[in-house]
Design a protein that fits this description.
6-stranded parallel sheet, 3-stranded mixed sheet, 9 strands
Length: 292
């Protein structure tokens, strides 16, 4: 059993912290809205703390899953941040999808203070968090990663060290680049099939068994056909992630023309009022363009 803290109990962090508790770890949670932390304790046991600093005190591993770079800095190096009370040689594991720059910045700050930082963004969405089958992409020191990996296993089906600090975030950017192109292609394919008068469900069923098959097709093809878009990862968050991708692409001189275009398509969905719809809602834009 490890002494753990978990900072941020959103749609991802809440079940992830629950899996840590179910695996037998001692877990103290912090959430900006204290009532959510209290509800977590009532459901899972453990304890809550009123600040990130108090949650992190005496913890061997501090996990975090918040919204963006600013949120991450707030709960780490801000007033009452976790970095102020981290124990020597403890490991801070950040599951936020954030920039590689902030990961490197916080890794350096942790090193100067005598503890360790791993950037560890995840893929798998809300369902993956709830079912404990996330994919975790990590950047940081090998020794710290080896200590953290067995604890991360409580909510992960796959976990891998990709390189030095920031490498996890760069890998997550690759993940989002690939998803953006896939969802747009799937949207176009389904819309095309329906406009041509085919049975969309039959089309998805047959082509999913061939070279066109993908996780998105298997898990979102049917719901896109049914016009339901309440399956976790929201358009607003995807646009945040793609903004990080586009900034990094400019920094390293990488061309990402499809990603840049799909980012604008997601903006169109936001303008339609779909900011909280899941990412498969790209198809709604095509249907509107076609006059449906």
């Amino acid at each position: 059993m490890a002494r753990c803290a978990f900072i941020g109990l959103g749609v991802m962090g809440y079940p992830m912290a629950g899996h840590l508790r179910a695996a037998g770890h001692d877990v103290t949670v912090y959430n900006r809205t204290a009532t959510k932390a209290q509800a977590w304790v009532q459901q899972h046991g453990g304890q809550s703390a009123p600040t990130p600093a108090q949650a992190a005190q005496d913890a061997e591993f501090v996990f975090c899953c918040v919204g963006n770079d600013a949120d991450l800095r707030s709960v780490t190096t801000g007033p009452q941040g976790a970095f102020g009370t981290m124990s020597p040689d403890a490991v801070f594991v950040d599951h936020t999808t954030a920039s590689a720059d902030v990961a490197r910045e916080l890794a350096a700050a942790a090193g100067e203070a005598g503890f360790h930082f791993i950037d560890a963004p995840v893929s798998g969405g809300q369902a993956g968090a709830e079912n404990g089958v996330l994919t975790v992409m990590c950047g940081g020191e090998e020794a710290a990663y080896q200590r953290a990996e067995p604890i991360i296993a409580a909510f992960a089906k796959s976990c891998r060290l990709m390189g030095d600090a920031g490498a996890g975030q760069i890998t997550k950017m690759v993940n989002q680049i690939c998803i953006a192109g896939l969802v747009q292609a799937l949207s176009e394919g389904i819309n095309f099939a329906q406009k041509a008068g085919l049975n969309g469900h039959a089309v998805v069923d047959v082509i999913s068994k061939g070279a066109a098959g993908s996780w998105q097709m298997e898990n979102r093809g049917g719901t896109m056909l049914d016009g339901t878009f309440d399956f976790g990862f929201a358009v607003d968050w995807m646009r945040k992630d793609l903004g990080i991708v586009l900034d990094e692409a400019r920094n390293i001189g990488a061309s990402v023309p499809v990603t840049a275009t799909v980012d604008q398509f997601y903006q169109d969905v936001q303008n339609m009022g779909g900011g909280r719809w899941d990412t498969s809602s790209l198809i709604t834009r095509l249907r509107r363009m076609d006059g449906e």
